[in-house]
Amino acid sequence: MDNATVEAVNRLTARWAARWSAQSADAAEGTVFTAAGVWPLLALLADGADGPARGELEEALGIPAGTAAGAAGELLASLDGVRGLRAATGLWTRRDLPLEAGWSGRLPAGARAVLSGDENTDRKALDAWAADRTGGLVERMPVEAGPGADLVLASALALHLTWEQPFAERPVRSAHGPWGGRSLRGLALTHAFPERVRVARGPAGPVTLLRVPGAPGARGVDVHLVLGEPGAAPGDVLTAGISEVTGALASSTAGELPDGGAGPGLSLRTVDSARPGPVVRVGTVAFDIRAEHDLLAHAALFGLASAAARPGHFPGVSAVPLAVGSARQSAVARFHAEGFEAAAVTAVGMSRGAARVRSYRVREAAFEVDRPFGFLAVDRESGLVLFAGWIADPATLT
């Protein structure tokens, strides 16, 4: 996987996390998203764009538009080689919409189909593709179907991990904080790897990170739980976590830190033990979260402001003037005793008419997650952040 592309996608992930934290009214409910699902679509759009839209997309991508299509194809092919991860792209067009051969010929391998213009027929076909490519985790394509849809470009990512060491389930009842008085599905784990717990100091304060490794093997994926100080902004916690897992922010492992309160949720002490070697005790919570994102609500972040304002910015895609009418992502993530699964479908809809922009409102290290926290699913080999999210409402006991 090309390092420049990985860095570009991770920068978009960090900017998205910061923007969501600063502007979202749903911060109390948490979220999950993947810039790795958006970035290839923006790259393919940039390849066929000109004028202001090309410049805006190029800025959002962080690489030249002239190399974007090739980078998107390489990224998607590489993602499909990550253990437990499935990546796919799809393109649907109206039969009477001519495509430029140069642009369509550079698209990654994937589904190619015709839009009939009948809303029910097209909706069933698009939803079936989304469900099939995500193993049923995402059941609906996040795009409008029907006579107004001339082109739909979509990506799907689906990740399924089994933990190297499973957690034990336990009931947890927090005595204080945002989860005080609630009965939660707690998860507990004890191991001997203090290097999996790190503390980093970001611009807005310290964060503690726990690496939960997926099953060992080539091209594996790990999930990192990221806990900040009480009241820390989700965007600050996530961006610090992204900087740490990508090597841009230094950290210290639990084995390198002195006894005492070493970081958020982390305490260290020296204890007597019947066995040699360090001990790490982890307590966290299971979660199951879904989120919907309207990318056009943050059009400038994704380089879509001009592309959505009026048609005619994509002569490299079609001789027919097109505008981006919708750009949305549906995502889901589940963290449980045996493993982790996440999926997202991102879809861009284009039409000939004006776009409609919608907005929506032994030494022992003990790490205890007892308040809202972030998570990052990271390709072990490249450092690419595949999924990121914030958990404010964990799974409860039924």
Output the keywords.
35% strand, Antithrombin, Chain I, domain 2, 19 strands, alpha+beta, 7-stranded antiparallel sheet, 24% helix, 6-stranded mixed sheet, Alpha-1-antitrypsin, domain 1, 398 residues
- Strand order, largest beta sheet: 1-19-18-9-8-7-10
Number of domains: 2
Most strands sheet: 7 strands, antiparallel
Mean pLDDT score:
90
Give a count of the beta strands, DSSP E runs of length 2 or more: 19
CATH superfamily of the largest domain: Antithrombin, subunit I, domain 2
Strand content: 35-45%
CATH class of the largest domain: Alpha Beta
Walkthrough of the structure:
The protein has helices at residues 3-23, 35-47, 51-61, 68-79, 101-105, 119-133, 234-245, 305-309; strands at 31-33, 85-94, 111-115, 151-162, 168-173, 183-191, 197-202, 205-213, 221-228, 251-253, 260-263, 266-270, 279-285, 287-294, 323-335, 339-351, 363-368, 373-379, 385-391. The strands form three sheets. It has a seven-stranded antiparallel sheet. Strands 3-2-4-16-15-14 form a six-stranded mixed sheet, sandwiched between helices. A six-stranded mixed sheet has the order 5-6-13-17-12-11, with no helix packed on it. Mean pLDDT is 90; it is low at 354-361. It is of the alpha+beta class. α1 packs antiparallel against α7, α2 packs antiparallel against α3 and α2 runs antiparallel to α4. It folds into two domains: 3-160 and 289-351, 2-Layer Sandwich (Antithrombin, Chain I, domain 2); 162-286 and 362-391, Alpha-1-antitrypsin, domain 1, CATH 2.30.39. The protein is elongated.
